[in-house]
Specification:
Largest sheet: none
Structural class: mainly alpha
Distance between the termini: 69 Å
Strand content: under 5%
Shape: extended
Number of helices: 5
Radius of gyration: 22 Å
Order of helices and strands: HHHHH
Helix content: 55-70%
């Protein structure tokens, strides 16, 4: 079994995480999901509690409304969070988990940002072309 690393000793965060996983009997080199030729497994580290996320959310203004439809199981789970009094409403619970999910997927979104920018530029060109064709003023 791998020697446990003291958190105060030097080493990259990745090395410390790999050491912790190895100490729990998890070897990422051996880990696979489904077909062995499939995309490598992605390990995401998430805080053990959502207290910090709730604090952050409480410090920012939530003035944007997003309507979502969820299945019954998801609604039940949101209600359970409300029952714990950790959040005040389904809306707050949903906002919390949307925020957390976006943070987990931030790398992928960042990788897609150039394409998102290209789409926005294309929209602007289209709007300008429509104005030109229809003789509309800006």
């Amino acid at each position: 079994m791998a020697e446990e690393r003291d958190a105060t000793r030097p080493g990259s965060l990745e090395e410390r995480i790999l050491d912790q996983l190895r100490s729990q009997g998890i070897d990422l080199a051996e880990l696979a999901c489904g077909d062995q030729a499939a995309t490598p497994v992605r390990v995401v580290c998430v805080a053990a509690n959502v207290g910090h996320a709730l604090d952050q959310m409480g410090q920012s203004t939530r003035d944007q409304v997003v309507m979502v439809r969820v299945d019954g199981d998801t609604a039940t789970k949101l209600d359970a969070w409300v029952e714990t009094a950790a959040v005040k409403s389904r809306s707050e619970a949903a906002a919390l988990f949307i925020r957390e999910g976006l943070q987990v997927r931030a790398r992928e979104l960042s990788e897609l940002q150039d394409a998102i920018d290209d789409v926005e530029e294309a929209r602007e060109r289209l709007k300008k072309r429509v104005r030109d064709v229809l003789g509309m003023k800006e």
